[in-house]
Amino acid sequence: MAGPGPRRSAVGVGDAGVTTVAVVEGDDAAPEAVRPVVALLDGMGLGIEWTYPEPGPEGLGVIDAADCTLFGATSGRSAAALFHLRWGRQTYANVRPLRWLEGARSPLASPGGIDLVIVRENLEDVYVRAEGDLEELARPAPVSLTWRRPVNELGPGRFALKVITDVGCERVIRYAYRLAQSRGGRLCLSAKHNMLPRTDGLFIEVGRSLARSYPAVEVEVLLIDDLAHQLVLDASRFDVIVVPNLYGDILSDLAAGLVGGLGMAPTACYGDHYAYFEPAHGTAPDLAGTGTINPTATLLSGTMMLEHLGFADPARRVVEAVEQVYRAGRVLTPDQGGTATTESFCAAVADHLDR
Questions:
Q1: pTM for the complete prediction?
Q2: How far apart are CA 257 and CA 248, in angstroms?
Q3: pLDDT for 25-81, tens place per residue?
Q4: 115-121 and 93-99: which strand pairing?
Q5: How far apart, in Å, are the Cα atoms of 249 and each of 1, 100, 195, 199, 255?
Q6: What distance in Å separates the CA atoms of residue 303 and residue 167, rounded to the nearest whole number?
Q7: Complete DSSP assignment for 223-288
Q8: Of the CATH numbers 3.90.1590.10, 1.10.645.10, 3.40.50.150, 3.40.718.10, which one belongs to the domain with range 1-100+260-355?
Q9: Domain definitions of the chain by residue range
Q10: Which of 56, 126, 198, 227 fits 222 for a cystine, CB–CB 3.0-4.6 Å?
Q11: In this predicted model, what pLDDT tens digit does every residue of 158-194 receive, in sequence order?
Q12: Please, what is the average pLDDT of the chain?
């Protein structure tokens, strides 16, 4: 699942040969998923040392000293850690594998065969968060090609900058090519390049130019709206998809819905020198305190983390145990049509690991 991200050997990691993982449990219901997952992984006897950074800027040094971070989700209280993990550590490749597990509650009649990865650029696009009032734009302001006049003459309103850089495109698309190459050789490049030829167009141009370095990879280019349509019609035809930040944020949630919801969707974020791992479901405040949040996304994020750290066989064992629990269908959380608690689901996975 992890793909060809920056990896570290399980032997000799850290200053004293110890693998260290920083755990940021997150907010609302997120800790209720993180705690039993950490307990399960710790029970595998891999010798991982778990560290818990203090909230706020004072805990960032603990994150930096760790080999990677397992992150819950934030609604604000853990935001300093997330911003540091993402922009501070330049983890530019947001990797979201989406695979239907037999027994999961998909809205599709035939979800079998869905096994794809969305690679989302993680740092740029509108997520640079540079916004303002139209009247603040310098004169002469950029001219709208559709309105055919400066955008600050359109009336009172606001703007947001969409920033796409050469280096931002190159590093995340090259990552996606390497991942596609390792998975069998199919890559879909997608953006809204017909309407945004300078920004989204740059993303597609860089993707096409990199194709020469990966001749074994079959490349398809789709407009982002067509890709959304094709995902719903037949997601099983896709393997690796690489997209700018905003589209990846949206489409990965759409694709998660096809395989059973956000509770099934893990994430790994890779940079050249650091990685962190988190479920895609957010903090689920409506489930806080109920003990029923689905820990599958956190567990699968944990397996991606194990692969990254060099524990490939233990990661495979956890994935197989999760698959067996879903296939049996007796201990599933409410979002999957069952009545199990978060703890009992993790216990069922641990039971399969012990067999």
A1: 0.93
A2: 14
A3: 999 999 999 999 999 999 999 999 999 999 888 899 999 999 999 999 888 888 999
A4: antiparallel
A5: 19, 19, 19, 17, 10
A6: 29
A7: EHHHHHHHHHHHGGG-SEEEE-HHHHHHHHHHHHHHTT-GGG-EEEEE-SS-EEEEESS---GGGT
A8: 3.40.718.10
A9: 1-100+260-355, 107-115+176-258
A10: 227
A11: 999 999 999 999 999 999 999 999 999 999 999 999 9
A12: 93
- State the amino acid at position 295 in one-letter form: P
The residue type found at 263 is: G
Which residue type occupies 27? D
Sequence-distant (≥ 6) Cβ neighbours of residue 117 within 8 angstroms: 3, 95, 96, 97, 98, 179, 183, 239, 240, 241
List the structure tokens of 109: 């009649």
Identify whether the C-beta of residue 235 lies closer than 8 Å to the C-beta of residue 99.
Answer: no
Q: The tokens of 271 are what?
A: 């940079």
Task: Give the Cα separation of 29 and 298 in Å (integer).
Answer: 12
Instruction: Write down the residue that tokens 């567990």 correspond to.
Output: 299
Coil/strand/helix, residue 119: strand
Report the candidate in 37, 32, 89, 33 with the shortest Cα–Cα distance to residue 61: 89
Q: Rounding to the nearest 10 degrees, give the CA dihedral for residues 103, 105, 109, 111.
A: -70
